[in-house]
Amino acid sequence: MKKIKRTGILCISIMIALVSLGIWGMDSLHNIKNEPDPVQANDLIKTLEEEGEGSPKVLELKERYGLEYRYLDGRLLVYPDTSSGQRLQYRAGAVIMAVTTMIAACFIIYHIHYMQKNILKPFEKMQQFAAEVAAGNLDTPLTMDRNHLFGAFTESFDLMREELAAARESERKANESKKELVASLSHDVKTPLASIKAMAEVLCVKTLDAAVVAKLEMINRKADQIEVLINNLFHATLEEIQELRVIPGDLESMELVTLLQNADFNHQIQEYQMQECLVEVDPLRLQQVFDNLVSNSYKYANTEITVETYIEGQYLCIIIKDYGSGVSREDLPLLKQKYFRGANSGGKGGAGIGLYISDYFMGKMNGFLELENDSDGFKAVVGCKLL
User: Fold this and answer.
1) What are the tens digits of pLDDT across the range 110-136?
2) Are 273 and 377 in contact (CB under 8 A)?
3) Strands (E), 218-301
């Protein structure tokens, strides 16, 4: 604001100076007369008649009025003095007028350029910037130039843009984190819930007390109700989720034994040997993969499970095999697609997204998940990247 005030005061001062020069030049030109002033001429004629030629008063009036006289055919003629001094005054006035006009023109041109560069263009940029922000585009910065009048405002507006962009990014990350949490919990809760249902069904068969059986059946019904609610929540969240965060890190392969034990709550995995090596995995996500594969084996095969490990190329391969009927040849390539459920899933709960998420997790950990029918069952091959 101070710069704007200084500029305005300077412009007004220059304009006043130019106007004063112009008035002085015009006055100088106005004093160059073509005809004598009648009053002054009569005064000079009267003095000549009274005092005579060459008198001091006549000389004084000639000098004061800028007049000259002579007699022609007995008549007294009075006319303006066209001496060199007045011609010089005329030329000076003309020069002053010309110079004043040129300076005024230059000043006007400069002022227009100054206004265009330092006020109009920056203001247009700020208008465009405001339109971009209003449209939600917060990635385009506002170029800062401290030389024009809006320099400080430009910096403030660009800081505002950065703060808005940071706030929007924080909101996006917070929403994604909430979706990831809901999706992860919804899927993970299904495994222990299946365990509760299985135990309740076993106890129903073994107990003879009718009151206990009724309570166990109530537990089973409530577990079914919870599973329906979890499926609805999971479907709604998965449709919005863009990316589940996977953070691979270094892990000793013997730690994978614990992850498999955590997944095998029915203790159907037979003894096996784990290859000793270092792999790049996210333990949390790999646990979800093992939970899903073992849970599917319980659900669709319900047989013993064998595990085999070997190293091939850059991967530690873990085979998880059951001895059920497997899946049809037509369904096999579609098992890892979202919401797909095979022909053998009739009457069994599920959403058709467990293998989809497991395959996604393994890809994010630079590994792989392969599903195959075997001669006597079905197997899943989990490939973990070696370090």
Assistant:
1) 777 777 777 777 777 777 777 777 777
2) no
3) 249-252, 278-281
For the CA atoms of 351, 357, 358, 362, the dihedral, rounded to the nearest 10 degrees, stands at 170
| Helices and strands, number each (H, E), in the chain | 10, 8
DSSP assignment letter at 202: H
Taking each helix axis from N to C end, the angle separating 56-65 and 38-51, rounded to the nearest 10 degrees, works out to 170
Q: What is the pLDDT of residues 205-236, one digit of tens each?
A: 888 888 888 888 888 887 877 877 677 666 66
pLDDT score recorded for residue 379: 94
pTM, two decimals, is 0.45
Question: Among positive and negative, which fits the CA dihedral 141, 144, 148, 153?
Answer: positive
Give φ, ψ of 247 to 5 degrees: -125, 90
| 3-class secondary-structure state, position 327 | coil
Residue (of 309, 290, 273, 320) closest to 386 by Cα position:
309
- First-to-last CA distance in the chain? 63
Local structure of 191: helix, strand or coil: helix
Helix (H, G, I), strand (E, B) or coil at 39: helix
The H or E element containing residue 96 is: helix 84-115
Residue type, 376: D
Amino acid at 251: L
Instruction: Please tell me the distance from the alpha carbon of residue 44 to that of residue 300, in angstroms, as a whole number.
Output: 136
CB 315 within 8 A of CB 385: yes
The b-or-e profile of 37-54 (16+ CB within 10 A means b, else e) is eeebbebbeebbeeeeee
The per-residue DSSP string of 9-33 comes to HHHHHHHHHHHHHHHHHHHHHHTS-
Q: For residues 230 and 193, is the Cβ–Cβ distance under 8 A?
A: yes
